[in-house]
Amino acid sequence: GEPGVPGVRGMNGVDGVDGLTGPVAGPQGASGPRGLPGAMGPPGYEGSRGERGAEGPQGKKG
């Protein structure tokens, strides 16, 4: 069968907000957490097996 579809990739975390600018610049925000990895797709189905062919006719005796 065909292989399963790969899972969707997790999104990146949102960036932290920058600190406000005052007379002194505020601290920079922390980076957001990283997205989780996507799940793997299910395995593909196996193809069905072919049926056996019929036997040919028997030859005539000479």
UniProtKB/TrEMBL annotation:
Tree of life domain? Eukaryota
In terms of Pfam families, this protein maps to: Collagen
Q: Which region ranges are annotated with the description Disordered? A: 1-62
> This chain belongs to which protein, by name?
Uncharacterized protein
